[in-house]
Design brief:
Length: 752
């Protein structure tokens, strides 16, 4: 395989580069259109009862309010004549907008839920189905925030959250790239000691990014794809491009230093480093593909992006980069850095006595040797540290993203903060109860006329009345709105009005169970479960939706699919590492060490983002972790850690296959890859930690969590625990049952 590839790139390097350039141009053109096709959200299970309930409300009843306008009196209360007139005009103007459905305002229906306890604020609620219409309205209200008049109007609600997140992700991406790329370039120049060699990883990374964006653009035309996949595309594309290019370029320079001719050096590089990155890329793809088993399209989108980027980066590094190296030859070392860095490099080169010294790190050889002299004494504290870092994960709590993932400068966050602080309940966060086979009627317990078919318990009006009374008596319910009127604490407080006709459809009705607790809290989740457990009117079926029910269903979906995901990632990793090494011990060791590393990362994520440590420095509001983020962190960190595992094992195996004793093979493998792995890890960590500057909390968590996983893996795992384990295992490191050894001899990918 690699011999054939080597013949192609050494004999036809210009043709290979021409095809690559055409491909890059095509992906760039297609990828530009990705941003307009991507969506926010995607954290819910599309097949869950809560999602079906929300779709039913949208399709049959015009939808739950997703645009919230917070109307604030500049002076006095919202009941003052000038504020009342202005508030009514806001509601009338909004209702007249094309694409805006049902509009409800405090001045139309009155009541505490739409008026703040201080009297300074009131709400106007609307349903807007079209994302473009919502975006225009949000933008218009945000621009007019300081307009003169008796009131100010601030947009909020789920429609505004989506727009605020979209805008913030685009802005954060530009900031992250403006920080990461210059720092990365400087570090690459330091690592390679020359500008030409340093530019090659960036080029490979850009090709990977273009390829990933092109795939997202195509998929965005066919299915739902999350806007957050762009963050992974840029970070992973740049990071893997750097990883793979570092390995290829370093090995090529090593082969040149050993005296090989240009074509022979390229062939040797492909046979060794090329094989390594193919297996490395396969392990990353396998880890990312596991996210496809989870229904939320947020996770599926991350899988699409990650797999596409990895494949493009792998192919570019394994095919196009060797062609570039063939054309450059020794000129890969051109434009050497002058000054201190160049002086250090020249002295190091002058002091070298052969190829071993130019390719090895004396520091990492010393680390490996010291660890293997006292493997238990060094390894046990390292394991204890990782386990201690993981302890906070034992009290993890989960939520779904709302306005609190944004900084307090975002309009949706400001509206959400006011509602939580100064309103008795959040009507827009209601638990929705769709009742099939029952239509609404007015009057309820007061004997009003029933509308629709008769239920088994009598007329529809009494059946709905009894059900609404029952739901309103549940703990943490502020009120229940229905076609039969309004209910509080088990009794009707207001009869049905003409406005309540919105709760009725041909053969169904729905109720709003407005919580007095935060819908993301445990009390809010318990309320959703309690509503589902209540007896329903005879002859009917019920679907329960709303934010609390979405969270309950999301947690259940993740927990149900998690064993399958873990099993798949363990199996694919085991198979790939077995094919790479021919050992069954090495894959098991890698899985155990990865679990330790991930335990530490997830514990640190809880300690920082849930418990709130470093919240002041990072500028976020502590809160529950998004249900999808641990899965995303697990898959990304697992894949990247296997990346470095393969890098290290490839050189150790080379030495082992040459008959070198175990401890010397491990020391040499770490000495020859330690500098590459730590450099690659530092560069990749910079790329991800740049997302810590984001104004979206779970993007911060993704960036910082991944960066921490990379650093731990490249230092504590590869530098300490791998040599300690391999010293203790001795020759058993390479053991496999005889049938598996025979299988590996037939299908394992070996050098050549």
């Amino acid at each position: 395989m690699f011999a054939s590839l080597a013949r192609l790139v050494t004999r036809r390097p210009r043709l290979v580069l021409l095809v690559t350039l055409l491909l890059v141009g095509a992906t760039a053109v297609v990828g530009v259109g990705a941003f307009g096709k991507l969506q926010t959200g995607g954290f819910d299970d599309p097949r869950s009862d809560s999602t079906r309930a929300d779709h039913a409300v949208e399709e049959r009843f015009g939808g739950q309010p997703n645009l919230v306008l917070l109307v604030t009196a500049r002076a006095g209360a919202v009941d003052a004549p000038d504020a009342t007139a202005a508030g009514k005009e806001v509601a009338r103007t909004l209702a007249a907008e094309p694409g805006v459905g049902r509009v409800v305002s405090y001045w139309d229906v009155g009541g505490p839920p739409l008026r703040s306890e201080s009297g300074k604020h009131a709400l106007v609620l609307a349903s807007v189905d079209d994302d473009d219409v919502a975006a225009k309205l949000v933008s218009r209200y945000e621009r007019a925030a300081d307009a003169p008049g008796p009131v100010t109007v601030t947009p909020g609600g789920f429609a505004t959250i989506g727009e605020n997140i979209n805008d913030q992700v685009t802005s954060d991406l530009a900031v992250a790239e403006s920080l990461a790329i210059p720092i990365t370039m400087v570090l690459l120049v330091v690592a390679f000691g020359g500008v030409v060699a340093a530019l090659l990883p960036l080029v490979v990374g850009v090709v990977g990014i273009f390829g990933g964006l092109a795939i997202l653009s195509v998929l965005g035309s066919l299915t739902d794809v999350s806007i957050f996949a762009v963050n992974l595309t840029t970070a992973l594309g740049l990071g893997l491009g750097i990883d793979y290019s570092l390995l290829m370029v370093s090995r090529f320079r090593e082969e040149l230093a050993a005296g090989r001719e240009r074509a022979d050096a390229v062939a040797a590089t492909l046979r060794t480093a090329g094989r390594t990155i193919v297996f490395s890329g396969a392990t990353v793809v396998a880890a990312l593909a596991v996210m496809l088993v989870f229904p939320p399209f947020f996770l599926k989108s991350m899988a699409y992006a990650g797999i596409a980027v990895t494949i493009f980066a792998l192919l570019t590094a394994a095919v196009a980069l060797p062609a570039v190296l063939m054309l450059l030859g020794p000129r890969v070392n051109a434009l050497r850095v002058s000054g201190i860095i160049g002086l250090i490099r020249r002295r190091r080169a002058a002091a070298a006595t052969g190829p071993r010294e130019t390719s090895e790190s004396s520091v990492w050889r010393a680390v490996a040797s010291r660890v293997m002299r006292r493997p238990v004494l060094v390894g046990v504290p390292a394991i204890a540290l990782l386990l201690a870092l993981g302890i906070p994960f034992l009290h993890v709590s989960f939520g779904t993203p709302d306005d609190r993932v944004l900084h307090d400068t975002a309009s949706s966050r400001r509206v959400g903060d006011v509602i939580r602080a100064d309103f008795s309940a959040d009507t827009a966060a209601a638990t929705t109860v769709v009742v099939e086979g029952l239509t609404g009627g007015s009057g309820g317990g007061s004997g009003g006329a029933a509308a629709g078919a008769e239920g088994a318990a009598g007329s529809v009006g009494p059946a709905l009345d009894a059900y609404a009374r029952d739901l309103s008596s549940l703990a943490n319910v502020a009120r229940v709105n229905s076609a039969a009127g309004t209910y509080v604490a088990g009794r009707q407080t207001a009869p049905a009005t003409a406005a309540d006709a919105r709760f009725s459809a041909a053969t169904s009705t729905y109720l709003e169970v407005i919580p007095s607790a935060d819908p993301a809290s445990q009390a809010g989740q318990d309320l959703a479960r309690a509503v589902r457990e209540r007896p329903v009117p005879a002859g009917t079926s019920v679907l329960v939706g709303g934010p609390s029910a979405v969270l309950v269903d999301g947690k259940e979906t993740i927990s149900q699919r998690l064993p399958l995901a873990i099993g798949l990632i363990a199996l694919t990793t085991f198979v790939l590492l077995f094919l790479f090494t021919g050992s069954v011990v090495m894959p098991l060791k890698a899985l155990v060490l990865n679990v330790l590393s991930l335990t530490a990362v997830l514990g640190a994520a809880v300690w920082i983002f849930q418990d709130g440590h470093l919240s002041g420095a990072l500028g976020f509001l502590p809160g529950p972790l998004d249900t999808s983020m641990p899965v995303l962190l697990f898959c990304i960190a697992f894949g990247l850690s296997m990346d470095y595992e393969v890098f290290l094992l490839s050189r150790i195996k080379e030495e082992h296959d040459r008959g070198v004793p175990n401890t010397e093979a491990v020391a040499t493998g770490l000495a020859r890859t330690g500098r590459i792995v730590t450099t690659a890890a530092a560069l990749l960590a910079v790329t991800f930690v740049a997302f810590g500057t984001s104004s979206v909390t779970f993007i911060q968590m993704f960036g910082i969590g991944t960066a921490l996983a990379i650093v731990l893996d490249a230092t504590l795992i590869r530098g300490v625990l791998v040599p300690a384990f391999m010293r203790l295992a001795g020759n058993a490191n390479w053991w496999a049952p005889r049938p598996l050894r025979a299988l590996h001899a037939r299908i394992g990918l070996v050098d050549g």
